[in-house]
């Protein structure tokens, strides 16, 4: 039988800029070769110093205008940070859906107010989540000698379906997409249009263990099949090929 | 530590209309109270007789016209079945994205050609996936005496991101959405806009074990927290509240 195990890694201390995330993780769990380590974007961003203090932000007229249209009472300075992190605003009616510099389409450019002690500090997405994943992977290997995959994840909403789900922003050392096109299915027919978003499924699985209010920002997924390493950016549909952008 | 286990249940025989899916599953695995049993839509549809034979289908002019615009070489009779299963066509350029009678937005109304011996037979989505999940749940309990959750899943594509992912169409006996609004987060702040699509995360996790070419249409997820039972239809964003439809 085909089995997978998901292990939540809790009890990490509050993360600060410059902290060695790999060392903090390895202090809590013994990794095995082939494990996938899924890390919530928030702790990666904190370790990388990807935060801003709203006290240092001045809202533009555009930010003030947009803030007034949103359902949740948003600080115009928060909206300004969202705009600073975006290349394009897709929707600004009720919620703010943007395309980020990294190419992600998500609410509020992934800028997040919650879970940060001191309410004026917000977290931003890593500048290059694939590089973040890659660097964490190298450091985990350096300390432990064990080769693992790493995913930097965040929870995103989506059209058509309700609720947010954990998705893979950055990927290193494991597949992002698995292309089954051309492989025969069980009945010997050629499968078409079957590219599996494996890294997103791994992130989603980890999301079940992370929850949102529990202090479990790291989840180890054990038992995945090996495959060709991919990158988080492979999961981004280009705007020119996106029928819904 | 918070742990979850995923167990693939393979080796099921080819499923035919009227088959007792619960008995087939229980012949392969001993369930435990609180397990979530994720079943691929395809075997549910086969057991329910939700298939059509293209030999019995006559393509309309509309189906012929649409078939010519698609990337993959599609049989106009296949397109006719897709139209029959839909209430609305959202996109028909290159791929066919429809809204189904059940309210799902997906490619080809979820109609599927592959994995069926005899190439003229296609599978359709269950008429009411929540009822399918509920009925399978009752029958599993009837035979085994064990109360489990059931998800009927299928792989859907999505805007903005590449690749298909396993999602929950029908849900019984476990939560679909978990609403964390109003609960404090780790820093004691109130979380806003945080509704987790838990059933979709469970389906995605199961998707990792199901793969696509492996004969593993059933995955047991063990270790989930209990919660208020939801339905698959809770996960569907209403068209009127959908900014991208």
Uncertain spans of chain A: none
CATH-scheme architecture of the largest domain in chain A: 2-Layer Sandwich
Biggest beta sheet summary of chain A: 5 strands, mixed
- What's the total helix number of chain A? 6
Distance between the termini of chain A: 41 Å
Top CATH class of the largest domain in chain A: Alpha Beta
Structural class of chain A: alpha+beta
Q: Greatest chain-chain interface?
A: A-B, 76 and 76 residues
Shape label of chain A: globular
The helix/strand series of chain A, from N terminus to C terminus, equals: EHEHEHHEEEEHEEEEHE
Query: Could you estimate the helical fraction of the residues of chain A in percent?
Result: 10-25%
List keywords for this structure.
alpha+beta; CofE-like fold; 245 residues; three-stranded antiparallel beta sheet; homodimer; 60s Ribosomal Protein L30, Chain: A; five-stranded mixed beta sheet; 2 domains; globular; 24% helix
Short précis:
The first copy, chain A, contains 6 helices and 12 strands. The first copy, chain A, folds into 2 domains: 5-50 and 127-240, 2-Layer Sandwich (60s Ribosomal Protein L30, Chain: A), CATH 3.30.1330; 52-123, CofE-like fold.
